[in-house]
Amino acid sequence: MTTNSPLSLFVSSKMQELAPERRALKDALSHIMQQGLVTGWIWEDDAGARPEPIRSTYLKEVEACDIYLGLFWLGYGPYTIEEYRHARQHDKQCLVYDKHVDAARRSPELSAFLAEVCSQPPFVRAASSHPQKMQPPQL
Q: 65: domain CATH number?
């Protein structure tokens, strides 16, 4: 990436479970996206109809991004863990937002995954209890 190119984000989460956070993230990024400083790839906005399988679409987009952004709460979708691992394999900067509401209801598999993620440097994690309080960490 050159210094004149916008950073590209890949947003990963369980879509329905974290729909308000995904909207808040899109709203928070809209200003810098309009300035051409960042581009974001969000499945519901950018996937569209494609001739290739879903899996190849999201893995290709993970490879093309500069930053992987994972949003997690109680569960995870069938692709979210694979997207994160694929980003790590391709040396992407990984940011993880952990919604800290009713965390005791979180699936044990997701709890184990988040514990694994937190142990892997470099790691940036931000916890939030409300979508409007999500603030991007300083890179």
A: 3.40.50.450
| Helix (H/G/I), strand (E/B), else coil: 126 | strand
Tell me the Ramachandran region of residue 9: left when phi exceeds 0, alpha when psi lies from -120 to 50, beta otherwise. Answer: beta
Amino acid of residue 77:
G
Structural domain count of the chain: 1
With 0-12 CB in 10 A as exposed, 13-18 as middle and 19+ as buried, what is 36?
exposed
Within a domain: residue 138?
A: no
Could you tell me if 62 and 92 are in contact, meaning their C-beta atoms sit under 8 angstroms apart?
yes
Task: Convert the pLDDT of each residue in 1-48 to its tens digit.
Answer: 456 677 888 888 887 888 888 888 878 877 777 777 666 656 566 555
What does residue 109 show for φ and ψ, rounded to 5 degrees?
A: -65, -40
SS3 71: strand
Q: Flag whether 40 is in a domain.
A: yes
Domain range for 48 is: 7-133
Alpha-carbon distances, residue 131 vs 50, 80, 91, 121 (angstroms) = 31, 19, 28, 26
Residue 110 lies in a domain: yes
